[in-house]
Amino acid sequence: MLALANVADVLGLPIRGTAALSPFGLISRIEEGLPFATLERVSQFVSPNDSQFKYRLVPKATYDRRKKGQLRLSSEEGTRVARVARVWNLALEVWQREDEARDFLFRSHAMLEDKRPIDVVIQNEFGAEMVLDILASLKYGSAA
């Protein structure tokens, strides 16, 4: 299950009223354009020692344009960042420690054809669902 308050926290979004705690409230905020700082925040959580990680979520040229002018992410960029935040949140819940959650995300996994979970998550929503399924299996005691 999606822990909306936790995902909103990872994204750095203040909880404003009960609408923010609903899936549609979060969807609306992503579609309106997440703050540019959200990209930096999620990148720091997921890969604090890799200053280039954010460019996997938003290409460098686009990043530079966003940083100079428009201080909001597009809906597509926000969706990608929120997808990573959602997976990060569950990985942290499963592993309980940031370093172990990162280790899981950045190490190849047999159930993903030896691809790294973070790569599969960034690629598309279907990939994120596969990683979330693995994490849910780990959380609830199944083999993964």
Overall description:
This is DUF2384 domain-containing protein. The protein is mainly α and 144 residues long. It has one domain. 65% of the residues lie in helices and 0% in strands. The protein contains nine helices and no strands. α6 packs across α7. It is globular, with a radius of gyration of 15 Å. The mean pLDDT is 89.
List the helices and strands and how they pair.
Blueprint: H1 4-11, H2 23-32, H3 36-46, H4 54-57, H5 60-68, H6 75-95, H7 98-106, H8 117-123, H9 125-139
Helix pairs in contact: 1-6, 3-6, 6-7, 6-9, 8-9
Protein name: DUF2384 domain-containing protein
Pfam families: Xre-like-HTH (PF20432), Xre_MbcA_ParS_C (PF09722)
Organism: Mesorhizobium salmacidum
Topology, number of strands = 0
Question: Helicity, in percent?
Answer: 55-70%
Number of helices: 9
Distance between the termini: 18 Å
Question: β content, as a range?
Answer: under 5%
Reading the helices and strands in chain order gives HHHHHHHHH
What sort of overall outline do the alpha carbons produce when their principal axes are compared?
A: globular
Structural class: mainly alpha
> Uncertain runs with pLDDT below 50, 5 residues or more?
none
Spatial extent as radius of gyration: 15 Å
**Total domain modules:** 1
Q: Main sheet?
A: none
**Average pLDDT reading:** 89
Domain Antitoxin Xre/MbcA/ParS-like toxin-binding: 91-141
Pfam families: Xre-like-HTH, Xre_MbcA_ParS_C
Domain Antitoxin Xre-like helix-turn-helix: 26-86
Protein name: DUF2384 domain-containing protein
